[in-house]
Structures are given as structure tokens and as C-alpha cells.
Amino acid sequence: MSHRARRDWGLNAAIAYPLAAVAEISGCFAIWAWWRLGASPLWLAPGIIALALFGWLLAQVETSAAGRAFAAYGGIYIGASMLWMWFVEGERPDRWDFIGTSICLIGAAIILSVPRGT
């Protein structure tokens, strides 16, 4: 498969980033559960699969530079992590969590949306 053919599979960041966040956070949580919470080592198998899916999804984002895709994803990851903390772990983010997350999401939007010279 040529490099051009692989690029044609690119996903819109609005689709790829949330899916990547779920994959990354669930994969990391599987390792956390095994290591820190004493869960079965069997948790590692779906965790590794989820982390591989995360990497694949992030690679599908259409951008001219991997670093830009990774940097913009960082804001999405922070927001998704706050939602995970709230809805999975049951700890509601405080106002500083909301303020910090908002700043990060604004930064991600700037990175992804500004026009760039060719």
C-alpha cells in the first residue's frame, strides 16, 4: 500500500480524537487496575489492545505533522480524563479542573483550526 493510499483513510479529528481518548484512557486504566488495584493480569490483554487502537486512531488524523496531531490531542485527552474521573471514578471535577480543561480545549482548537501557509 502506498503512502498516498494510507493517507486516504484519514479520519476527521472530531471523530478520531474522542475515539482515541476512550481507547487510551481505558487501556491505561486496565494497567492501573492491574498494578494499583490488584485486578487480574488478564486486564492487561484488553488494555494493550486498547492502547494499540489508540495509536492507530491518532495516526488517522489528517494533518501535515504528527506533532501537531499529538499536541492538539493533548487537549482532548485532558477533557476526556476529567469526564472519566467524573463518570467512572465518581469524583466531580472542581472549578479549577473546569477552567484548566477549558484552556486546554481552546488551545487544541487553535492548533487544529488556524490556517497555515503552504
From TrEMBL:
Transmembrane parts of this sequence: 12-35, 41-58, 70-87, 99-115
InterPro entries in the record: EmrE-like, UPF0060
Keywords from the named record: Cell membrane, Membrane, Transmembrane, Transmembrane helix
Subcellular location: Cell membrane
Record membrane topology: Multi-pass membrane protein
Pfam families per UniProt: UPF0060
NCBIfam families: PRK02237.1
PANTHER family recorded: UPF0060 MEMBRANE PROTEIN YNFA (PTHR36116:SF1)
Protein's name in the database: Small multidrug resistance family-3 protein
Organism of provenance: Sulfitobacter litoralis
